[in-house]
Each structure stands twice: as structure tokens, then as C-alpha cells.
Amino acid sequence: MKSIKGKILLSASCLLLVFGLFWLMFQYFHQLFLQQYNQVLERYLIFQQVSVQSEQLLIRTNDLLHETSEQSKEHYILARNLLRQAQSKVKLLQNDENTAGVSDYTHLIDSFIESTDLSIQAYQQERSDDATQFYRKAEQERSFITETTLSLVDHELTIHERLYAQMIQSSKELQIVGWEGFLSIMAILIGCAYWFSRGITRSIALLTKGARFISAGVYDQPIKVESNDETAFLAQTFDQMRVSVKRSFEELEAKGKLEQEVKEYQYLLKEMEWRNLQNQMKPHFLFNTLNTLAKKAYLEGSVETSDLITTVAELMRYQLAKADVEVTLAEEIEMIRNYMTILQARFTDRLKGEEKIDPACLHVPVPSFLLQPLVENAFIHGIESREEGGRISIGVRAAEHGVQLEVADDGVGMSQDQVRQIMKGMYTAQGQTGSVGLSNVIRRLSLYYHREDLLQIQSEVGKGTSITILIPATLGERGKLDDSDFDRR
Amino acid sequence: MRKRNVLIGAISLACLLLIYLPIYQLTHTYQTLQQIHKPASSVKETFRIALISPAIRDLYFKEVESGVQEVAKKQGIMVEVHGGYKGNALEMARDIQKVTSAKVDGIITVGMDDPTFIQAVNQATEGGIPVILIGTDVPSSLRKMYVGSDHVAAGRILGEKVRVDLEKKSSPTVGIIGQSTDQMVAMLRIRGVEQSLASQKSMQVVKQIYDSSEKNGTMQTMSQIHELLNRTSNLDAIVVSKGEELEAVIRVIKQRVGLGKIQIYTFQDVAQLTDVFAQGQVQAVVVDNPRKMGEESIMHLLSWIRGEQLPLPSHIYTDSTLETSTGSRFRNEEH
């Protein structure tokens, strides 16, 4: 994995390298050309030097001829040496094109020095005529030197003319190439910069998009960045964070749902308890009163009345004691018998009770007050309104997966719509308590056994209603409703 | 990824090209530069011969030079050409002095009958430098040798041609025009012509010799021809002693009597008269051989310098050729 820093460094150094090479190359050639120019200039200067030094020598000779002193002699020798030096330099300038000119030139210088020497020699030997003659000769030769200098420089210029032309041409071309190079490098540079920055910003844009999704609460949009720098790592980490946040949320949601369920159950239970408590006051008082009444009736010789009152008292006792506990089916059936006895005592001829009970099934545990609301309903809605009365039959038999309870009447019955509404828990008929009782039974069953299909209603208008409840036999099918249930989650 | 590699490759290629192109360009220029400043390949000491002419662009001199250069090239001798385009004796003398000071090994120069020139030649010879004159001899100078046409012999050839052409006429008249100042060429030619014509007694010769001191040569020549035509009523032929005078002669004759009436004979130092022949203006021309002069002069000069031929002969005559309008050629022998 390359870091962003590394990338920047690499591209910057690449560009620097290219620019540096370009610069170095131009500098190198600039130096070379400068050298050549210098060389050309030097050539002119050397020729010029010869011309100047020869004039100097002529002047010194003249001085010496007019005034013989050590100083002027020294001057003369100095000038002579300088001219010799210039001459030796000229020899180096000889090339294929100026061979003749340069060799003439050096010989001319020789002749000139010879003439000045001879002139001075003649003067020293006091042959002034000869001295003057040689001096004249030297003068003439000096003019020849000047002439030849001019022609040589002229020649140089002619040679260099085409060189200059070429150099000018080259420098023009070079300038063009330089500009082209500069522009192309700039273009490449901009292209690289764009490409490179896009590489970084694209990954960052992807990251930003991912962050926006997460902030909007969308956790199932994967964040994927294909890059070989730090952004890839960043994106990977970000994605991991997204996944774990999503999981936590899901867990939290499930937990919340569960808690809500538990709360609902507890609420229902509380309601039951409250109703029981509310009812407790009356029943206890009634219970005691009933017992007193039963004893009084018995003492007064009305055994039948005493029994009935005792039954009512029994029923009340059951209600008080078993309000929110699990009871056996046998206990529940016993309570229903008591209830029926009371009802029959009230409506002597109009109500007939029937029992079809399989004694083998009576040990099954059921929630208390499971059947009583059904019987109450059957009586209130099915039979009470009928003048001729009716029959309520209670059935207990073993079914395939447990025990089937049935409460049937041959009363007014219900339409299919009413049945459906009751099943949905929406129906409220004339007697409100009754329907509350039925929906209470349905709700308690579903909470108790965690099944919705245990209670079924079959009814027909005019023919009666039959409500069946399936009590599952296997313990696994019903959860135990205590605190440990919640801990399992 | 592959696309990226291609991109990187293309960019590197472009960079390389960018760097390579100017390098190539500059290297090329630099090499040319160095070529020019390269010192002489062989600094071997050779003989230096100075070739001097008053008119270095003349066809005549170019022929001489090519003869000299041919030999020089074969023997590896350095020849320096000096001179002007329309030079005079003074300039020639100065050039000779200059090359003398430059200590050349030998001088080949076109001769001039002028005291300054002669003095310069003498100085060179005194300085130990051999001087060979070509074309024009100056026997009074201290020149080592003369290489060129024998002008008297050339005159004789032309004179003979004139004599033969006019043989059938009863009393032919021949006009001769020449400059008295040109002693060493024109006068010698005229002498040769006269020698040939003298053999025929009936031949009448009229000479118009003039002094060419004036600047405007052509005008002067024209007036001299007018004078010649005034002097003689029935001129059959005219001998022009210098090729330079020919144009003026033709112009005057055209004006006065018309071409074809008078036959024209002349001398040329270089073969360049084909157009003149084509118009039938000129009967015959004696032409010098400047190329031969160049070859001979340098060969003798080198043999003297090398000490192979001591002393040199006083003169070497190169051949002169008679060319006529009918195309026949006659070449005299070398001496």
C-alpha cells in the first residue's frame, strides 16, 4: 500500500527530474555555445593584438632611434616579446581555410621584426641612412601586417557568417523546442495532477457518500473504496463500523419488542388482579353472609335452600381463592357444576345442563376461570333471551394433541360476521361484560400457550353456538410464564 | 491498470522525445562549429608560391590560375593569389612587396612595363625570391624568367594569314593599329605582322600607333580608327594588335563603311571569340595559351627552387593558335 504522501513525493520528484533534466541540458548547451562564441571572439582579439603590438613595436623602434636610453631599449624588447607571443598564438589559429593567410602573416611579422632589429642595429653602428631605410621598410611591413590582419579578420567573418546563420537558426529552433517542451510538460503536469487528485478525491467522495447514508440511518449500503492508499483503510474501517452499528440496532429492536410483549402481559395480569381485589370486598362479605344464611335455612328446616346457598358460597370461595392460579381441569369442572346449579336454581325449568366428561382428562392443568366466562356467555346471550329456555352442554374429551373442551348451547346463535369480529376481539354485543369475558379468555389463552388457534367458535343463527378449546397436552408447547422466560432472550 | 500502464508509457516516451530532440539538434550544431574551428590537419611546411595579377577575375588570368593550381595540387604546393580587379602597376608593385615581406618561396606575376613594378620585382629578386613573368615580358627587370607567347612569332602568323588572304589583290592596303605604350606586346606583334607583310612588295601598310595615356581607352581607340580611315581611302584589311581594341574597331567600321568591306584580324590572349566569328566580323584571330603559361611557369619555378634546373632559361614561349572564321586552325611551335 502506497501512502498519499508517498504518491505526492513520487510524482513531484518525477516532475522535478524531468524539469531538471531539461534545464541541465539547456544549460550544458548554453555553455558549449558560449565557449564557441568565446573562441570566435578570441580569434579576432588575437589578430587585433598582433596589429596593436606591431604598431607598438614600431613606435618603440622610433623612440629608440631618437633617444637611446636603457628605458626605451627595455620598452622595445618588451614590445618585441609581446609581438612574438601574439605571433605564436596566431600560428594556433591556422586551419584548413586560412593556411596561406596565416603563414603569410607569421612571415610578415618575422620580416617586420627583422627590419626593426636591423634598423636599430644600423643606428647603433651609426649608419643612420641604413637605419632610416630599414625603418621605412619596417613601416611598410607594418602596413602590410595591418592589411593582412584586416583580410584575415574578413576571412574569419566570411567563414563565421554561415556559422552564425546556423547558430541563429539553431537557437531559434531551440527556442521553439524549448517552448514546446515547456508547454507539453505543463500539460502533462496538469494531467497528472488531475489524475492524481481524482484518485484521492474519488475515494473521499465515496467515503462521504457512505457517511451520509449512515447519518440518514441507512445501514445496509456497503462502503467500498478501491484504492491503494490510506483512504482504502479508512473506508474499510468505516464499513466495519457500519456493520456493527447495524447489528446493535437490530438487537436493540428485538429486545424492545420482547419487552413490550412482557409489559402487555403484566398489564393484563394486573388488571385481573385489580378486578379480583375490587371484587374481593363484596364476595367476602357475601360469602360470610351466604354461610350464615345457609346455616339459618338449615336450622329452619329448609334443606334445599341451605344447599343452594352453600353452592353459591362454594363458587364464591373458588373465585376468591383461585383468581390467578393454575388449577386442574377437575377443579374447573367442579366450579362449573356449582355455577350451573345456581343458574338452574334461578331458572328452574328453562335451563338444562349436560355433561360429557372423560374422567381421564381431568388431571390436565388449565388457567383458572377458563370455562366460567364461556358458560356465562352461553347463558346470557344464548338462552336468557329465549322464553322456552335452552340447554348448555359441557364436553371434555381427549383429542389428538391434548384435551378438547367444549361449551355448547342451543340458543339464538350468531351470524358468521359476529363470529369473525369476536375472534378479532372487536365485537361488543349488548352485555358488555360477556364479550369482555370471551376476549379475555382468548387473550389469556394466547399468552398462556403462545398459540392463537386454540379457541374456535361454531355458531348458526337459531341453532346455537359451540365453543371448543384445545388444551395442548405437551408441556413444550406452552411456555412457563415466569421471570426466567425473559432472561432467556 | 493496463490502461494506466499505457498512459505512463506514453508520457515517458513523450518526455524522452522532448529531451532527445533538442539534444540532437544542439549536438548537430555543435559538431558543425567544431568542424570550423578544427586546426589545420597538416601543418606541414610546403612551398608557398604567390600568384599576382592586376585582374584576378579576368578569363585570361583564370586560365593561368587553373594551369598553376593544377600543377600545385599535384605536387602539394600552396598557391596564394593576390591582386585586384582592375589593378595598376602601383598596386601590383605593392602586392609584390607584400609577398616579398611575407617571404614566399616564389612569385609568378603578370608582367608590366612600369618602373615601380620593375623595382618591386628587382627587390624580390634581391631578397632571394625568384620572379617569373607571364604574358608580358619585361627584360629590363631582374626577373628570373618569362613564360608566355612569342608575340613577334604570333604577329608573323597573323601577318602571313593577311598576306595570303590579300595575295590576289593588285595593290592591297593593310591598316595596323596599336598602342605605343604597349611596347612588350602590341609593338612586338606589329613587328611580326610587318615582317610577314614585307615579303610582298605590292602590299601597302598604314600604321596608326598612338599613346594610350588617356583614361577613356575605348573613345581614344575609336578616334584613332577614324583617323586611320581618314588617312587611307581604300583599306582592305585591318590588324588590331590588342583584343581589347576590337570592339571599338568593329563599331567604327560598321558606322563608316559597313562590315565586310574591311577584313579584321586581331590577337586574343584567351579563346573567347566564337560570337565574333559567328557574325563574320573577324577574319582571323591569333590566340594565346594562358593555361599552358600557368603550367609552364610553376613547373620551372619549382624546379628552380628545388635546385633541379640552374640557371633557368631566360624565356619559355608558349604556343599561339591562329583561328579563322572558316574554322581552320594553325598552331605555331613552342620554342
Helices and strands, with pairings:
The complex is a heterodimer of chains A (489) and B (335).
Chain A: H1 4-66, H2 70-92, H3 99-124, H4 128-215, H5 230-299, H6 303-321, E1 326-328, H7 329-346, E2 351-357, E3 365-367, H8 372-383, E4 390-399, E5 402-409, H9 416-424, H10 432-449, E6 455-460, E7 464-472, H11 484-487
Parallel strand pairs in A: 2-4
Antiparallel strand pairs in A: 1-3, 4-5, 5-7, 6-7
Helix pairs in contact in A: 1-2, 1-3, 1-4, 2-3, 3-4, 4-5, 5-6, 6-7, 8-10
Chain B: H1 2-37, E1 48-53, H2 59-75, E2 78-83, H3 89-101, E3 106-110, H4 115-126, E4 131-134, E5 145-149, H5 151-166, E6 173-179, H6 183-197, E7 204-210, H7 217-231, E8 237-240, H8 246-256, E9 263-268, H9 274-278, E10 284-287, H10 290-305, E11 315-318, E12 321-324, E13 329-331
Parallel strand pairs in B: 1-2, 1-3, 3-4, 4-5, 5-11, 6-7, 6-8, 8-9, 9-10
Antiparallel strand pairs in B: 10-12, 12-13
Helix pairs in contact in B: 2-10, 3-4, 5-6, 7-8
Textual characterization of the structure:
The complex is a heterodimer of chains A (489) and B (335). With 489 residues, chain A is an alpha+beta fold. In chain A, 72% of the residues lie in helices and 9% in strands. A five-stranded mixed sheet of chain A has the order 2-4-5-7-6. In chain A, strands 1-3 form a two-stranded antiparallel ribbon. In chain A, strand 6 and strand 7 form a beta hairpin. Chain A is rod-shaped. The relative contact order of chain A is 0.05. Residues 427-434 and 475-489 of chain A have low confidence and may be disordered. Chain B is of the alpha/beta class. Chain B has helices spanning 2-37, 59-75, 89-101, 115-126, 151-166, 183-197, 217-231, 246-256, 274-278, 290-305; strands at 48-53, 78-83, 106-110, 131-134, 145-149, 173-179, 204-210, 237-240, 263-268, 284-287, 315-318, 321-324, 329-331. In chain B, the strands form two sheets. A seven-stranded mixed sheet of chain B has the order 7-6-8-9-10-12-13, with helices on both faces. A six-stranded parallel sheet of chain B has the order 2-1-3-4-5-11, with helices on both faces. In chain B, helix 5 (151-166) packs parallel to helix 6 (183-197) and helix 7 (217-231) packs across helix 8. Chain B starts with a helix and ends with a strand. The A-B interface holds A 18, 21-22, 25-26, 29, 32-33, 36, 39-40, 92, 94-96, 99-101, 103-105, 107-108, 110-112, 140-141, 144, 147-148, 159-160, 163, 166-167, 170, 173-174, 177-178, 180-181, 184-185, 188, 192 and B 11, 14-15, 18-19, 21-23, 25-26, 28-30, 32-33, 36-41, 43, 48, 78-80, 97-99, 101-104.
